[in-house]
Amino acid sequence: MGNNAVVVGGGIGGLAAAIGLRLVGWEVTVVERARTPDDAGAGISLHANGLRALDVLGVGAAVRAAARPQYTGGTRTPDGRLLARMDGAALERELGTPIVGIPRSGLHRLLRAALPPESLLIGAEVTSVDRSDASRVRLTAGDTALEADLVVAADGIGSRLRTQLFPGHPGPAYSGSTVLRAITKTPVDLRTDFELTWGRGAEFGHIAFADGRAEWHAVLNAPAGVRHPDPLGEVRRRFGGWHDPIPALLAATRTDAVLHHDINELVTPLPSYAVGRIALLGDAAHAMTPNLGQGACQALEDAATLAAALSGGAGVESALVRYDAERRPRSQSVARAARQAGRMGQQLSRPVAVALRNTALRLAPSRVTVRAVLRHADWTPPRLGRPRDGPGRAVVRSPQ
């Protein structure tokens, strides 16, 4: 088995895959089309499964040190009434860790710091893939020609490689919800580490960070493609009258800091995450709605599982068959659960349905909420085999 891999996409899943492959002895090149590292995005919550995957990859401790544990929080109504309490301490007792919150940019930097700079090919987009040779895959990225024994397609929800591999697949579909989000410019006095507030067809949430700043997101039922000349002004119009600390979060946000994206997902599951010597990973394989906070965690699981499959000494194609068998059922199940959570949560808009949901949440014991998180976060990571001759363990450097 050869030991040269190309990872297409330098996001969370692609970087994690590159780290894992290096740990088991592969030479890795990460091809990222952005000319500068794409740290766009606001914040992210990492559940126990994502943290366990990061531990396997050797970067879990660094991520925990930069993150803020989520011990307090819950779900509220727009007037501030508590519907369900999040018990981070109970999750820690069950799983060994609470959920943590970290800026996406910080997570990206920590993952990049675990890779040698020369392994990153920045500003080059993979435009073609040639699989005519059964033992190698040839890629064209700008003016660069690459050959690899393994290709990892981690090029996101709009994956060009997925389209080439599965030309009959319908691709991503609009979920019916759009999200505006930002990180505050300054620290905000928050009473909780994490919170969601559900109205009618609308959600507002925040994630507190270790430096006192916070990410907030506002999710709305809306037609696809709708944009606003003043995004922050629109959020203030829709959510400014909701309970504290929502007005304070918006007041601490720069006008030009708001990102606006429609939420798309792969509603039609892929028939496989492996085609020959190409593996699909993260959003390229199973883009899901964010309602369970599992998108990045599932990509991290993918990365750890892929590295473990390729460390066992089997041929590349056999290893990818194993990867597909282990990852596809679980990740597609989580994607279905996330879609259902959105339909029963933020997307509900009829007053009677909203009232019934709120009553059910208020009456449910706290252990029910804990069990709902455990259903997806309690994942046992694989063990990586001994590295073959090759680069060996990644070195975690201080991020620049």
Strand content: 15-25%
Lateral strand order in the biggest sheet: 6-5-14-15-16-13-17
CATH classification class of the domain at 4-69 and 99-170 and 268-344: Alpha Beta
Please give the number of β-strands: 19
Major beta-sheet overview: 7 strands, mixed
Q: Give helix % range.
A: 25-40%
Write the layout of secondary structure elements.
Blueprint: E1 4-8, H1 12-23, E2 27-32, E3 43-46, H2 48-56, H3 60-66, E4 68-70, E5 73-76, E6 82-85, H4 88-95, E7 99-103, H5 104-113, E8 120-122, E9 126-130, E10 137-141, E11 144-148, E12 150-153, H6 160-165, E13 173-183, E14 194-198, E15 202-208, E16 214-221, H7 231-239, H8 246-251, E17 259-265, E18 274-275, E19 278-280, H9 283-286, H10 295-310, H11 316-344, H12 351-363, H13 366-377
Parallel strand pairs: 1-2, 1-12, 2-8, 5-14, 12-19
Antiparallel strand pairs: 3-7, 4-7, 5-6, 9-10, 10-11, 13-16, 13-17, 14-15, 15-16, 18-19
Structural notes for this entry:
The protein has a seven-stranded mixed β-sheet. It has a six-stranded mixed β-sheet with strand order 8-2-1-12-19-18. Strands 3-7-4 form a three-stranded antiparallel β-sheet. With 400 residues, it is of the alpha/beta class. α4 packs across α13 (366-377). The protein is built from 13 helices and 19 strands. It has a domain at 4-69 and 99-170 and 268-344: FAD/NAD(P)-binding domain. β10 and β11 form a beta hairpin. The radius of gyration is 21 Å and the shape is globular. The protein has helices at residues 12-23, 48-56, 60-66, 88-95, 104-113, 160-165, 231-239, 246-251, 283-286, 295-310, 316-344, 351-363, 366-377, and strands at 4-8, 27-32, 43-46, 68-70, 73-76, 82-85, 99-103, 120-122, 126-130, 137-141, 144-148, 150-153, 173-183, 194-198, 202-208, 214-221, 259-265, 274-275, 278-280.
